[in-house]
Amino acid sequence: MTSGPLHEYTIGSIRAALLAKKFSAEELTQQALAYAEAENPKTNAYLTLSPERALNAARAVDARIAKGEDPGALAGVPVAVKDVIVTRGLRTTCGSKLLAKYVPPYDATAVIRLEQAGGIIIGKTNCDEFAMGSSNENSAFGPVRNPVALDRVPGGSSGGSAAVVAQDTAVVSLGSDTGGSIRQPASFCGITGVTPTYGRVSRYGLTAFASSLDHIGPFGKSTRDAATLLKVIAGRDDMDATSAAAPVPDYMAALDGSVKGLKIGLPREYFDGLASGTSDRIMAAVEVLRGLGAEIVDIHLPHTAYAIAAYYIICTAEASANLARYDGVRYTTRSAEAHTLSEMYRMTRDEGFGDECKRRIMLGAYVLSAGYYDAYYLKAQRVRNLITRDFTQAFEQVNAIVAPVSPFPAFKLGEKVNDPVSMYLSDIYTITGSLAGIPCMSVPCGHTAENLPVGLQILTKHFDETTMFRVAHAYETASN
Amino acid sequence: MKITEQEVRRVADLANLALREDEVTRMAHDLDEILKHIDKLNELDTSDVEPMAQVLFDAEETATLREDRERSPLSNADAVANAPVTSGGYYKVPKVIER
């Protein structure tokens, strides 16, 4: 495994070292950038490094420390940002050929908040094109390799953001999750990834894929680091009308709480057809939680089997509308062959979008088209309601739910690229929580016989990230 | 077949995608596979279930709008900086009304 300059550093230990003057933020940033540049060819996880922006931010942190000011909750911490989240003056490609030269004129709210807290953005990470994919093989800039096993995928769509944390080329990172795009790569790369409650983090500056399902969330090597980053970026933002006004609790205070007496639900539907290597690790984690005093309760989420069908109607319908803006007028690319207005739209999009984006735009346009709207789109929204009710009813009995993240560990590059349906079906355990908009996360829970990481998923009710983090931290502490 | 190549061409038209002939064939196959899976939803009776368009839409925490205040917008130069073709601070496109 790696032993670069960031290995074993946490948000807390970087802060302590900076305040004790063991090194400056500028020194750490320089080392992190050099290491990221040297290691990146192994995984292709970064699409762009941002040395100038990073060193300026680091010098600002050092100046605050020199003046005796609080340098912020993320002081000097090297952070990577998924390339669907816009950064002013820093190329943001969304993993698409169409946006290969796009330089956004503004920063996402999450980016502003993490930089205000002293975080150092050292680069933008590779991802599936417009966050559509489960393996990071849909990037126009080539796939990302899993740092744990270089012949395997890191998961997707936030594969780059998971890989950089696993590879120690960043301490924490931001990803986005629409149907599992944070939790699944976190599980494949053996790190922690959090999808907060829908609306907990502003989507302002997150390139829209499926607006009713899109979330920004953190990756880290521990629950503590991921929770610290979430606390910084969470909370109401006037620039996103769907961002929630609910107060953001002090997650750190909650981490050390006991799980004794907590009721934790085990949904039977999530264990059908699960590979035994994964199932064994999940059940071992359940026994750890039972040993800590949690009460394990069998529960049912009866509409689970319908989640993928509902999801692929809703997300593609929303995507077909959201991606209409890439029409050759405003976003950097226009087909050189186009002479009329209609050719400009059609040819720019045909040349610019990859296969998966086209498939989803087509499916979305189809399910929304005259004669199909009620049968597909409205039907899917009704089923979404049933899936959400399953969770509401379950949380009347239990405080948290634990489940697998993915039916299998990281698969080989190329293994599923020619079978879109099989790729879609691999998202079965993450899509349910996305449709309901509840907080869910992936915590590492050991390895399969092939030494591939397995992730334990923890889900709680809307806005109860606190209980989710408590369960995750208790498990993490007991299993270390 | 749930979807024909002719329907694929019609939808590509709606979506402003100029699919090549080989793409039409492959798209018809892929969409057919996906639509077959989606048929599963018809097993459920949802006649008395409300459609859910948005998470927590009615919750007090989210049903809020910002104060309507004057803010400075993007500058004209910033707004058109990424456009492939501009002219005098405007986006330039091929003729909209063709003779």
Structure characterization notes:
The complex is a heterodimer of chains A (480) and B (99). Chain A has helices at residues 11-19, 25-43, 51-66, 109-116, 159-166, 183-189, 223-233, 251-255, 276-291, 307-322, 341-352, 355-368, 373-397, 420-425, 428-436, 465-479; strands spanning 46-49, 78-82, 120-125, 172-177, 192-195, 215-220, 263-267, 295-299, 400-404, 440-447, 453-459. By secondary structure, chain A is an alpha/beta fold. Chain B is mainly alpha-helical and 99 residues long. Chain B has a domain at 1-43: Glu-tRNAGln amidotransferase C subunit, N-terminal domain (Histone, subunit A, Orthogonal Bundle), CATH 1.10.20.60. In chain B, strands 1-2 form a two-stranded antiparallel sheet. In chain B, helix 1 (5-14) packs across helix 2. Classes of the chains: A alpha/beta (480), B mainly alpha (99).
List the defining traits of the structure above.
heterodimer; A: 480 residues; alpha/beta; Amidase signature (AS) enzymes; 16 helices; B: 99 residues; mainly alpha; Histone, subunit A; 3 helices; 2 strands; 33% helix
Mean pLDDT of chain B: 89
Mean pLDDT of chain A: 96
What's the main sheet of chain B like?
Answer: 2 strands, antiparallel
Indicate the structural class of chain B.
mainly alpha
Question: In total, how many beta strands of chain B?
Answer: 2
How far is the N terminus from the C terminus of chain B? 40 Å
Identify the quaternary structure here: heterodimer
Q: Write the H/E string of chain A, N to C.
A: HHEHEHEHEHEEHHEHEHHHHEHHEEH
Q: What would CATH call the homologous superfamily of the domain at 11-254 in chain A? A: Amidase signature (AS) domain
Residue runs with pLDDT of under 50 for 5 or more positions of chain A: none
The CATH topology label of the domain at 11-254 in chain A is: Amidase signature (AS) enzymes
Can you name the CATH architecture of the domain at 11-254 in chain A? Alpha-Beta Complex
Order of helices and strands of chain B: HHHEE
CATH class descriptor name of the domain at 1-43 in chain B: Mainly Alpha
The total of helices of chain B stands at: 3
Biggest sheet of chain B: strands side by side, in what order?
1-2
Helix/sheet category of chain A: alpha/beta
The CATH class of the domain at 11-254 in chain A is identified as Alpha Beta
Low-confidence stretches of chain B: none
